[in-house]
Amino acid sequence: MRARRLALVLGLGIALVLLCLLGAGIGAFPSPVADVLASIAHRLGLAEAPTGAGYLDAVLWQIRFPRVLLGVLVGASLACAGAVMQGVFGNPLAEPAVVGVSGGAAMAASAVTVLGVTALGAWTLPAAAFIGGLVTVAAVYLVARSGGRTEVVTLVLTGIAVNAATGAVINLLLTYSNDAQLRSVVFWMMGSLAQTTWPKVFAVLPCAILGLLLAPLFARQLDLLALGERPARHLGVHIERLRGTLMFVVALLTSAAVAVAGMIGFVGLVVPHVVRMVIGPGHRFLIPVSALGGAVVVVAADLVARTVMAPVELPIGALTALVGGPFFFWLLRRTRASQGGWA
Predict the structure, then answer these.
(1) Cα separation of 316 and 299, whole Å?
(2) Which of 271, 270, 307 is nearest to 289 (CA)?
(3) Which CATH architecture has domain 1-331?
(4) For a pLDDT cut of 90, what percent of the chain falls above it?
(5) Half-sphere exposure of 260 (CA within 13 A, CB side)
(6) Rounded to two decimals, what is the model's pTM?
(7) Which one of the record's GO molecular function terms can you name (predicted)?
């Protein structure tokens, strides 16, 4: 198992580095990997400036590097949040959208777009999405909580109800939107890194780093929770405190990612499950390796999205859904078969 974990981490690490270099080099102004490396070395003071450094630096450091870095942060955040959610719910079919993070963020983003709110300028939509996601998760958790306890089934059903309500609000808002607002909301909801800037990267960076550092600290308690709530309590795990804390971590990671990149589905569902099949269910490795795998998936999806039909750019959410949808159906059937049915 140790060799398998090491091989997976090395494979994902190498894949991520190669994809980042390809993502930085491929585009309307193609740059060989050697020039990309030379530009990085020049900025670090390790080499002379490459030929055409002025234009090359502008393309790389103002457009492509922030986009690649944002893809890494968004993918790592979504996959890490998915691994934590599956541990909290004790179900491999769980993902952050279950508790309404994505729905709340989409509703808030749609509201500020259709209502024409511009209080924070270009930051209005990301800020609204971030706050909407956090508020929705807090509402789901508080509504599902009763008598000082929160049952998983109640939490899931509350999340489903909130998702249905946010979807209905979004549909009502779109009914009263004009063509430009409709296109803006729909494009955002399909997920994209096309509008990436360094300020967006720096905006999501603190939330992503904080969430990615906090999540692995609860790995042992999640392993105990996998034994069942009662055994976990007997072993000293404060279930409610753990669940509330990790819900906040999930909301932090997912809201930040959704706020800057829109809705990119299935990364939080598919990546942790694939990693679990390879290295086992232990959260000590599952959480960080899932984050690494999520970064690889989103950077690869972004590279495909902007090159496969260039100059037209495809939404990343559509690509991840094309892969995640069939995988989800396979996962449902496999889980159902292994458990002998749902009833």
Answers:
(1) 10
(2) 271
(3) Orthogonal Bundle (1.10)
(4) 17
(5) 29
(6) 0.87
(7) transmembrane transporter activity
